[in-house]
């Protein structure tokens, strides 16, 4: 898989230029992340390495990986021996190094609150729920296929309420899902946007929602539908035995959602 | 293998004589059809159009057009050029041509419909990626059912109206933040469009089929078997969850057998196999799926438990030849490990395996006629003495494709000669799903001052070389073969050139101004034959060349389609 191969050669021709002078005053958390992002995109993102915003290039993706803060500090500062990943602690001024670390942490959902110091760490259950929410092995039933949380996932259906328990999560009401009729074809549909001429809506017939762009005059949209949240959850294969999300799994996901979503 | 080789040579001698006699009888495309009727049960030649990625579903990259041929190609001149304006080069997509209209896509998913005769823009579509979405490369569109279908680096499949370029439907193949992407051209099979998961970070890869009309998902085949499925036991622990095996290029289709063929990539982590003990099915394999259901019909794993990044993702060329006295439906597959695997495409039976690089591969000492690897030479762990392993991990042939001419019976391959020092390392503690598990450094092969490459004309079944055309740098562009008995491609320094398909003699060349990483096509517009080549040097593999040749930094990138034709006759 050569397109993801290491930036063995390119890295060494990228010379870090301290174009952004070290900060004169301590930066607030948001400023520090912003500054770290600028530094990152001029250096770490370049030359087939981690890609703009850390979404991967020749070197691994950094965004949304669930990397631990201590690990990020260690690797950015000391590098990884015998790989192209350099020890930036030897090159970057201290404030810049801190900014890059803060930025990479932010890509993994680790941010400092402006006034209250570091955000409280997620509980073990919440971290387990987070892993399940974005679990690659959950495949077609994965939560993040339709829901964007902490800036990660597809924003097809924003979470408006956090259900109280696993059972109500399976049967959660979806009042926004209606029924569309287009040229004789009737299907469950979720409205995305509409102008006088054009309507964009998701066809929820198959497990992967299809965003359709249609002439408004061709579409009849009514309230209520046959669509069920449980039918999507049945497509998950998260556990080692290939079964769907269990009630315990859903409970852990709910702990995660309560910890990170402020409705 | 040697015994089988001679049986094949003898068996093929008869059909070769027949081929040669008819090839010499004239230059017209009518002759080409006569030959195909003799030795080809299926016609894989493109005609006036270039309707799919490999020319046709059989992936020959061969056109029956012969207005431009060995007698007049030296008069060929540029007809028009199209500059895409997408500065994220190179232009590496295969243009698709339907009814004289060229459909072209670029890395950032700018899609254009262009008048094939004049170069006039008909419509354009500029894709807007999702927030944080990354667009790395794009290798082409598919056209069917009044739609232009294109995949995106942030893992969407989009259908555009073929007439207007307006978006009709758009579906997320997966949540890209988990690691999927699409860089390859989709494959159209009847009413379905099939896309391969290009991967980016470790997950269990898949092929997905969608309804062309509605965009609804019809089936998904995972290239790593899940719990309860046959083959799941070939992965240790939960390594299957992150096992990769990305089918990241475009497959082929045999309409008579109704089978879709696809090559799969390496298992993850790429170089370190310690966590995934077992043969890791269906990585580094050819898979044959029922086109209607996506169910596995057969598989052939070329490399069990790969630790060298020797994907089997390249094109599956479908052709019919006499083997041991009877016509066999073949699948010919140039692997990344320096061998060509020749399979019966009805059953997956191995009929022959032959090396195609000049520098002997040493990752194994050999492959038996049953396909078993002999004398595996796995790369050392970090800290152990380094070992030179051939070929390098980009393979003698990279994603650039071969071409097969039924007129000569030969397959034309761009072949690179280089090796690499590989190392393995266990995953970095704390890094979730570490993807690489090792490194490599490319270098010249033993006994050579420099890496090099060559274009070869080979018998696809036996591997017997008819001629070779040497080149001092690496070739990263596809081959195009035509009934005008031409083989065309471009080199890294920017020359686009034509060789005589029978002899390899260079007949014509033109400096296009930037290196070549794409796939040229040919088509008819207004009754006139055109040959169109994407230009622009680049890609991860291309960037590695700067480590082999310092002058590689001067092989400029770009994103321009350069189109050639014979001069118009004075009226």
Task: Walk me through this protein's architecture.
The complex is a heterodimer of chains A (263) and B (571). Chain A has helices at residues 10-13, 29-42, 69-78, 94-107, 124-133, 166-170, 229-233, 247-260, and strands at 112-113, 117-118, 177-182, 185-194, 198-203, 210-215, 219-223. With 263 residues, chain A is of the alpha+beta class. In chain A, the strands form 2 sheets. In chain A, strands 6-5-4-3-7 form a 5-stranded antiparallel sheet, with no helix packed on it. In chain A, strands 1-2 form a two-stranded antiparallel ribbon. The relative contact order of chain A is 0.12. In chain A, a hairpin with a 3-residue loop joins strand 4 and strand 5. Chain A starts with 9 loop residues before the first helix and ends with a helix. Chain B has 571 residues and is mainly beta. Chain B has one domain (9-565): Quinoprotein alcohol dehydrogenase-like superfamily (Methanol Dehydrogenase, Chain A), CATH 2.140.10.10. Chain B contains 3 helices and 38 strands. A 5-stranded mixed sheet of chain B has the order 1-32-33-34-35, with no helix packed on it. The N and C termini of chain B lie far apart (60 Å). Residues 1-41 of chain B have low confidence and may be disordered. Chains A and B meet through helix 3 and strand 6 of A and strand 10, strand 14, strand 29 and helix 3 of B. Strand 6 (210-215) of chain A pairs antiparallel with strand 10 of chain B, so a sheet runs across the interface.
Shape of chain A: elongated
Shape of chain B: globular
Query: What name does CATH use for the topology of chain B?
Result: Methanol Dehydrogenase, Chain A
Structural class of chain A: alpha+beta
Unreliable sequence segments of chain B: 1-41
Order of helical and strand elements of chain A: HHHHEEHHEEEEEHH
């Amino acid at each position: 898989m050569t397109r993801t191969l290491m930036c063995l050669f390119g890295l060494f021709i990228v010379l870090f230029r301290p174009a952004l002078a070290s900060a004169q005053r301590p930066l607030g958390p948001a400023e520090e992340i912003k500054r770290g992002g600028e530094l990152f995109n001029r250096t770490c993102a370049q030359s087939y390495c981690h890609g703009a915003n850390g979404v991967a290039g020749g070197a691994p993706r950094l965004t949304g990986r669930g990397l631990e803060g201590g690990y990020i500090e260690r690797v950015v500062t000391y590098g990884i021996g015998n790989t192209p990943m350099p020890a930036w602690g030897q090159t970057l001024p201290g404030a810049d190094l801190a900014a890059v670390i803060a930025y990479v942490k932010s890509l993994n959902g680790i941010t400092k609150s402006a006034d209250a110091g570091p955000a409280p760490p997620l509980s073990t259950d919440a971290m387990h729920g987070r892993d399940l929410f974005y679990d690659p092995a959950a495949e077609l039933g994965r939560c993040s296929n339709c829901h964007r949380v902490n800036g990660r996932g597809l924003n097809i259906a924003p979470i408006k309420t956090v259900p109280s328990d696993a059972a109500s999560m399976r049967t959660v009401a979806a009042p926004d899902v209606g029924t569309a009729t287009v040229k004789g074809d009737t299907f469950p549909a979720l409205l995305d946007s509409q102008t006088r001429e054009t309507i964009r809506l998701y066809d929820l017939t198959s497990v992967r929602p299809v965003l359709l762009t249609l002439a408004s005059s061709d579409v009849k949209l009514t309230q209520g539908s046959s669509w069920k949240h449980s039918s999507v959850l049945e497509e998950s294969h998260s556990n080692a035995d290939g079964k769907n999300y269990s009630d315990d799994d859903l409970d852990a996901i709910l702990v995660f959602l309560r910890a990170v979503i402020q409705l | 293998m040697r015994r089988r080789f001679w049986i094949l040579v003898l068996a093929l001698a008869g059909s070769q004589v027949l081929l040669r006699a008819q090839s010499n009888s004239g230059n017209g495309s009518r002759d080409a059809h006569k030959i195909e009727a003799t030795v080809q049960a299926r016609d894989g030649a493109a005609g006036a159009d270039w309707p799919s990625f490999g020319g046709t579903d059989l992936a020959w990259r061969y056109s029956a057009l012969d207005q431009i041929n060995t007698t007049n190609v030296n008069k060929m001149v540029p007809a028009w050029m199209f500059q895409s304006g997408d500065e994220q080069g190179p232009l590496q997509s295969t243009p698709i041509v339907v009814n004289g209209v060229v459909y072209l896509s670029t890395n950032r998913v700018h899609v254009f419909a262009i008048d094939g005769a004049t170069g006039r823009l008909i419509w354009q579509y500029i894709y807007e990626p999702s927030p944080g979405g990354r667009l790395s490369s794009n290798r082409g569109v598919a056209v069917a059912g009044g739609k232009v279908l294109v995949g995106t680096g942030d893992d969407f499949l989009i259908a555009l109206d073929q007439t207007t370029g307006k978006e009709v439907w758009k579906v997320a193949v997966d949540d890209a933040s988990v690691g999927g992407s699409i860089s390859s051209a989709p494959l159209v099979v009847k009413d379905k469009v099939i896309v391969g998961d290009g991967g980016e970070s470790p997950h269990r890869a898949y092929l997905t089929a969608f309804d062309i009309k509605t965009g609804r998902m019809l089936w998904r085949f995972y290239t790593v078997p899940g719990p309860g499925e046959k083959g799941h036991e070939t992965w240790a622990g939960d390594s299957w969850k992150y096992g990769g095996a990305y089918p990241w290029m475009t497959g082929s289709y045999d309409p008579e057998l109704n089978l879709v063929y696809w090559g799969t990539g390496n298992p993850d982590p790429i170089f370190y196999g310690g966590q995934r003990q077992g043969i890791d099915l269906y990585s580094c394999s050819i898979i044959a799926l029922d086109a209607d259901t996506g169910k596995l019909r057969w598989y052939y794993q070329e490399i069990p438990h790969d630790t060298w990044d020797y994907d089997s993702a390249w094109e599956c060329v479908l052709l019919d030849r006499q083997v041991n006295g009877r016509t066999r439906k073949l699948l010919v597959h140039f692997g990344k490990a320096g061998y060509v695997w020749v399979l019966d495409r009805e059953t997956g039976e191995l009929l022959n395996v032959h090396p195609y690089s000049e520098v002997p591969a040493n990752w194994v000492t050999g492959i038996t006629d049953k396909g078993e690897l002999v004398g595996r030479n796995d790369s050392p762990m970090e800290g152990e003495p380094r070992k030179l392993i051939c070929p390098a991990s980009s393979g003698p042939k990279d994603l650039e494709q071969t071409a097969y001419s039924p007129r000569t019976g030969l397959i034309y391959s761009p072949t690179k000669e280089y090796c690499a020092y590989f190392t393995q390392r266990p995953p970095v503690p704390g890094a979730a799903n570490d993807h690489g598990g090792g490194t490599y450094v490319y270098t010249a092969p033993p006994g050579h001052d420099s890496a090099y490459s060559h274009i070869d004309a080979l018998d696809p079944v036996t591997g017997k070389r008819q001629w070779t055309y040497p080149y001092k740098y690496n070739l990263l562009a596809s081959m195009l073969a035509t009934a005008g008995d031409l083989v065309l491609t471009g080199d890294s320094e920017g020359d686009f050139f034509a060789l005589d398909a029978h002899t390899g003699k260079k007949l014509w060349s033109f400096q296009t101004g930037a290196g070549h990483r794409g796939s040229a096509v040919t088509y008819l517009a207004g009754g006139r034959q055109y040959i169109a080549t994407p230009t622009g040097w680049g890609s991860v593999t291309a960037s590695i060349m700067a480590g082999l040749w310092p002058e590689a930094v001067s092989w400029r990138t770009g994103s321009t389609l350069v189109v050639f034709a014979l001069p118009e006759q004075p009226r």
